[in-house]
Every structure is written in C-alpha cells, then in structure tokens.
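agent> Task received from the user: take the single chain below, predict its 3D structure, and emit structure tokens. No templates, no multimer pairing.
agent> Plan: (1) validate residues, (2) run structure prediction, (3) serialize to tokens, (4) report one or two observations.
agent> Step 1 OK, no nonstandard residues flagged.
tool_call: predict_structure(input=
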Amino acid sequence: MATKRLFEESGSDHPDQPNNRQTRPRPSLASVIGEVITRNLLQNFSSALEPMLRRVVNEEVANGLQRYTTSITRSPSLQIQYPSLEPPTLKLIFAKNPSIPIFTGTKILDLDNNPLQILVVDTRADHQMIPTLSSPIKVEIIVLDGDFPRGDCDTWTSEEFDQNIVRERTGKRPLLAGEFLQFTMREGFATIGDIEFTDNSSWIRGRKFRLGARVVQGRGFRIKEAMTQPLVVKDHRGECKPSLSY
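)
tool_result: status=success, residues=246
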C-alpha cells in the first residue's frame, strides 16, 4: 500500500503529463468571418480616404501659396524686381529740350520759353503719348553726367542710369532747386514747375550736365528713363545783361 501511495504522489507532482495538458480552444467560424469582414472594411476605408486626404492637402497648399503670392504683389516693399531681357515698352521723355544758354539761379524753360513737360510714351506705337495711366507713378527729376550715355547709344539699364547721376559738390547745395523735383503722374503728361541749377557744370570732366527723369515708385515693371541733350550750365555772374542805350 505504501508503494501504491508513493507512486500516486509522485505522479501528482508532474502536471505537464500528456493526460493533464490544456488544449487551446479553436476559433469559431463566426469569429473568423467577423475578423475577415473587419479587415476588409478597414482596407476599403483606407483606400477611399487616401484620395480625399490628398485632395484636401493639395487644396490647402495651393490656397496658402496663392495668399502668399497676393501679399507679395500688394506690398511694394516685397516686390522682387527681375531684370527684363526685353526693352521696356513705356518710357519717359522730355517734350522739348531746355532753352540754352542756362545760368545758375535761373528758371529752366523749354525751347519755346514754357515750363518743361514730361510725357509717357509707348515705344511700340511710334512713341505715342499714353493718355491715361492705369496707376499713378512718382517721377523724380535729377542731374546726369553730360557724357552719358557714350556715343549715340540710346540703350541703358536702370543701374547704369543711376550710376551716372551727378551729386552736388562737397559743401554745396543740391544741384537742382525747386518745388517740383518729385511729382505724381496720373496721366501721360506732366508740367514741371520752377526748377533751376544751383551750380555750374565746369567742375565735371565733360563740363556738361543733362536733366534726367526716372520713376521712383508705382510700377512693378520698368519705365525707361528720360534725359535731355547735354547742357552747359554757366554761373549767373557770367550772364550778359542787355545794355541800355539813350
């Protein structure tokens, strides 16, 4: 009896015997079908959602770029000026050259002794004047080196034009004086008021000035600058006064 009890106790110490092993329950047919259906639903949902997400993202990116571009276009300070490979189609011109001789401190008039006029013309239409501008432009009257441009060249860049602006000598007043050195043009012409030279032209290499006009604000594309013929400006002390005869 003791031997039989010992055998039974030793058998009870090994639960992993084949007779006592727990078998894993097999999934039911309903659970397998449910899992397959759920997986198919998720796959179909993902396939349908992907093109919708792509469309929404593309639309948001396009709208963002459009708003950014519009803000740059409306802000003059953010406008990027690209050098044009084609000549400008609009340009400024002086209607008539100044009357000579010109003396310092004397009003500058045209050949008919009238105030100078600036025109905006279309180079594609035989330099016809533009009657009305689509938007106002601010024009500045400046002094140029009389030797610019070299030779008979009628082509220059805005950078070359700016590089040939003549400034006053050290300790002197600005070369031009007057109330209409800057003005706004809303039509294709403008009359320049009283302007005058404050210094003679003898101190620069070519001994001649030119009057120039350039657009300083109001356009996203270039309007070609204007200039007069070379001008010798003399000191008003050398002006000949008419003699009185009795």
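agent> Step 4: summary for the user.
The two ends are 175 Å apart (CA to CA).
agent> Done.
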